[in-house]
């Protein structure tokens, strides 16, 4: 039986299903995501785009960095997902969008070098200084675009 997870924005106008298991779950400490999400960090849950099925609503898109597209609810502001040309076939859904976020324990910390000094963790997860995923070198890093 295929795993199906559901998600919705705060006001409920955008809903989606994610089919199958995520391939990567990571606590992200970078400043770009911190600004976009409005939190000291977020947990990104990685799926293939084909695993994500929008049920209701139409997310608004925003891009501050060439090649990076963020989606969110235009009504309530809930962050939904993140796409990056440097990570083809990877869609990252933010933990706050899921109806059952407790089902997604992180596997690592990314951008550990940007972690706020007062945020502490007692876990033994890998701490990666920058990106935790292998990027397409032809596209480059978002910070360099």
UniProtKB/TrEMBL annotation:
GO terms for molecular function: carbon-sulfur lyase activity; metal ion binding. Residues 5-113 form the CENP-V/GFA domain. The keyword Metal-binding applies. Gene3D superfamilies: glutathione-dependent formaldehyde- activating enzyme (gfa). It comes from the Bacteria. The keyword Metal-binding applies. SUPFAM superfamilies: Mss4-like (SSF51316). Keywords: Lyase, Metal-binding, Zinc. Belongs to the Gfa family. This is Aldehyde-activating protein. It comes from Mesorhizobium wenxiniae.
């Amino acid at each position: 039986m295929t795993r199906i997870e559901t998600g919705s924005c705060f006001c409920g106008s955008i809903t989606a299903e994610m089919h199958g298991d995520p391939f990567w779950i990571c606590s992200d400490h970078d400043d770009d995501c911190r600004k976009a999400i409005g939190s000291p960090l977020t947990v990104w849950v990685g799926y293939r785009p084909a695993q994500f099925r929008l049920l209701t609503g139409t997310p608004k898109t925003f891009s501050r960095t060439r090649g990076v597209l963020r989606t969110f609810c235009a009504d309530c502001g809930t962050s939904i997902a993140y796409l990056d040309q440097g990570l083809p076939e990877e869609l990252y859904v933010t933990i706050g969008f899921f109806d059952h976020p407790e089902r997604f324990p992180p596997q690592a910390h990314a951008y550990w070098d940007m972690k706020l000094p007062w945020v502490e963790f007692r876990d033994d997860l890998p701490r990666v200084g920058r990106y935790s995923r292998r990027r397409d070198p032809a596209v480059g890093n978002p910070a360099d675009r």
